[in-house]
Amino acid sequence: MSSEQIIFYILSFWFIASSLAMIFARNAAKAVLFLVLSFFSAASIWILLEAEFLAITLILVYVGAVMVLFLFVIKMLNIDKSTLRAKFAGYLPLGLIVALIIIAEMTLVLGGAQFGLEVIPSPARHGADYSNITVLAMQLYTTYVYPFELAAVLLLIAIIAAITLVHKKESTHKKQNVSEQVNVRAKDRVRLVTITSPSKEKK
Amino acid sequence: MMELWQSFVLGVHETMPWFDGAIATIVVILIKAMALIMPLLLTVAYFTYVERKVIGYMQLRIGPNRVGPKGWLQPIADALKLMTKEIIFPSKANIYLFLLAPILAIAPAIAVWAVIPFDEGIYITNLDVSLLYVLAIGSIGVYGIILAGWASNSKYPLLGALRSASLLVSYEIVIGFALVTVVMIAGSVNLNTIVADQQGGIINWYFIPLFPMMIIFFISALVETNRAPFDVVEGESEIVGGTHVEYSGMTFAVFFLAEYANMILMAVLAVVMFFGGWHSPFEGFGMLESVFAWVPGIIWLLLKSTFFMFLYLWVRATFPRFRYDQIMRLSWKVFLPITIVWIFVVALMTQLQIGPWFS
């Protein structure tokens, strides 16, 4: 076994182990951390496949942003575990059916018939001067420029939709006018008056 | 320098033929890492001393002057004090995550330095996506703060962690957009290429065409490293000490180290991105260039970063703390539109091939 294979098996083991640990974790925050660990293992396997741009993007987007928001939400919600566990057994048959369908689909699509060495030969190793990101950019911005732009527009629609869902009308919420706050001067807020003391008047 | 290294490598090969292959690679990487981490930690220690001294003088005080001559041993005394103090665990805290938090804060803060180029050919690794690596690993540091807030099981740390999570996520977007303009000029995400592209004296540095981006990057760096005037995560007067209220002794010291290592990193990154990295400002100035030709590139890099590190302290001593919602507004309603507009400006400048930067 070459050193590369050893590294691959260690990373795969970590990947599977952390994914399982994430599912079985009782504590939601720990589950998120195990998911982060599995993302890291996946990214490391991609680096082993010379796809360093994808690996770094996985860490940047999922670990750096998405999972942070997950943790953020978990901290703010006070999850009541007893209500979650109460109906757990009731969902079991449905869950099993869904799991079986997913497993069947995965074996059909990702099996040896589609991804075996006979169908796709193992990719050749590239030299040290091979730039993964340049090749990817050339493909994305020339051959696949329209699908790429379409995906961008789709994301934009999602952003606008999310904002319109939570955006309230002006009348229903209070708003701070920052320019007004900045332009405020002392004389607008404080009125200084001189009052003659009555005790002094007597003397 | 390189010849000396080559002869040293050959000598090692002759005397110890068994020292080769994977073991040699790992040992060399470890030596390189130590050569980086040791000076970094020393810089962190003395940066705290400089901070107290500089802010002291700015506020007409003297600052630390008791331990050693002129107080030079103060950071050593502080380190000893922190190491000998007891680590207190809150009784209702989640111990594993409580201890994992400082580790998750310090590890990325040091790992990021692997791709920083200090001079032509002096780096630990020359990654092709090094800028993305810096952003990706840098964004992991937030886990340390969030976990510290959550695992402490205490209200002030939780408030600090909530503030920090929203701040860091929004300012990462701003930093990303600001650095996109640098990538557009350099045509590469490799830090070595970005610095090499700024060759040719102070006129060729990117801070001239990207001046607003440089300002935005520095201000966002202040937020990312939780520095004044954006230190609402700690906010002593509002939430006691934020995320590290419950931390004591060495666990607190590790957070402290991570914060200062990140500050130094952001200063170096600003120099690499906008101020020509290891290049001398006098390149292409005839007389001046030959006078300063003997200065090694790493000295220029360190001098320029020292200026930015001083700027951190200057800003801290000058401005009062921002209100939390104003920081959020600054990110989403002020900085983000400016950066997006400037991306278009840079695209236009690239098309028109303006100046020494876009040719």
Which structural traits does this protein have?
heterodimer, A: 203 residues, mainly alpha, Four Helix Bundle (Hemerythrin (Met), subunit A), elongated, B: 359 residues
Oligomerization category of the chains in this entry = heterodimer
Q: What class would the helix/strand composition of chain B place it in?
A: mainly alpha
The overall average pLDDT of chain B, rounded, is: 84
Overall helicity of chain A: over 70%
> CATH homologous superfamily of the domain at 1-83 in chain A - what is it?
NADH-ubiquinone/plastoquinone oxidoreductase chain 6, subunit NuoJ
Helix content, binned percent of chain B: 55-70%
Continuous helix count of chain B:
13
Order of helices and strands of chain B: HHHHHHHHHHHHH
Mean pLDDT of chain A: 83
Overall spatial form of chain B: globular
What is the overall silhouette of chain A? elongated
> What value does the Rg of chain A take, in angstroms?
29 Å
Please state the structural category of chain A: mainly alpha
- Helix and strand string of chain A, N-terminal first? HHHHHHHHHHH
The profile of the biggest β sheet of chain A is: none
* Distance, first to last CA of chain A: 106 Å
CATH topology of the domain at 1-83 in chain A: Four Helix Bundle (Hemerythrin (Met), subunit A)
Biggest interface, residues from each chain = A-B, 26 and 33 residues
Q: Hey, roughly how much beta strand do the residues of chain A contain? A: under 5%
Verbal overview:
The complex is a heterodimer of chains A (203) and B (359). With 203 residues, chain A is an all-alpha fold. Among the domains of chain A are: 1-83, NADH-ubiquinone/plastoquinone oxidoreductase chain 6, subunit NuoJ (Four Helix Bundle (Hemerythrin (Met), subunit A)); 129-166. Chain A is 72% helix and 0% strand. Chain A has helices spanning 3-24, 28-48, 52-76, 81-86, 92-110, 112-115, 132-143, 145-166, 178-183, 186-189, 198-202. Chain A starts with a helix and ends with a helix. The relative contact order of chain A is 0.05. Chain B is an all-alpha fold and 359 residues long. At the A-B interface, helix 2 and helix 3 of A face helix 5, helix 6 and helix 13 of B.
